[in-house]
Amino acid sequence: MSELSERLGMEAGNCFKAGNNCSEAIVQAFRTVGGVDIDDNAYRLCSGFGGGMGHARDVCGALVGCTMVISTLVGRNKPEDKPLAEIYPISKEFHDRFVAEFGSSACKDLMPFEFNTKDHLRNCLKLVNRIGKFLAEFLEEKGLLK
C-alpha cells in the first residue's frame, strides 16, 4: 500500500463527507488527488449511481465510479481506437476483486441501513474510503496510476 493509495482513500472519504454520493466521491478523489483527467460532464454522469442506482440498492455506486475511473484510463473514444477485448478484462478483473474483497457488488448487501441515517452515512463513509484505496492499489499494480 502506497502513500498515494492512502491519500486517495482519505480523499474519497472526505469527498463523501462533503456531500458527494459514493460514485461522485470516488470519481472526484481520482480527479483531484489521482490526477485522472475526468471533465465536469463525465463527473456529472455519476450523480445518478449513488445508493445503487438512485437508492435502488442495485450495483454499488462506488463500484460504478471505480469503473468510470478505469474506463477513463483504458477506454476508447471511438470503436476503431482499440477493441473491447483490451478493455473489458481490466474492468472484469477489478469487479471480481471487488466482490472477493467486499463480499458483493450490490449496494443492498454492502449497505444494510436505511438511507440518510447515521448508520448509513458511517457505513458508506468507511466503504468509500476503503474502496478508494482499493482502486488506487489496483491501478498502481496495473501501472495505470503514477
Outline of the structure:
The protein has 146 residues and is mostly helical.
SSE topology sketch:
Layout: H1 3-17, H2 22-32, H3 40-45, H4 50-53, H5 61-74, H6 88-102, H7 107-110, H8 118-141
Helix pairs in contact: 1-2, 1-8, 2-5, 2-8, 5-6, 5-8
Walk me through this protein's architecture.
The model has no long low-confidence stretch (mean pLDDT 96). The two termini are 13 Å apart. This protein is an all-alpha fold. The protein has helices spanning 3-17, 22-32, 40-45, 50-53, 61-74, 88-102, 107-110, 118-141. α1 (3-17) packs across α2 and α5 packs antiparallel against α6. The protein has one domain (3-141). 64% of the residues lie in helices and 0% in strands. The longest helix has 24 residues, at 118-141. The radius of gyration is 14 Å and the shape is globular.
* Separation of the first and last Cα atoms: 13 Å
Helix content: 55-70%
Reading the helices and strands in chain order gives HHHHHHHH
Low-confidence stretches: none
Mean pLDDT over the full residue set: 96
Radius of gyration: 14 Å
Task: Please report the number of helical segments.
Answer: 8
- Name the overall outline: globular
User: Into which percentage range does the β-strand content fall?
Assistant: under 5%
Give descriptors for this structure:
146 residues; 64% helix; mainly alpha
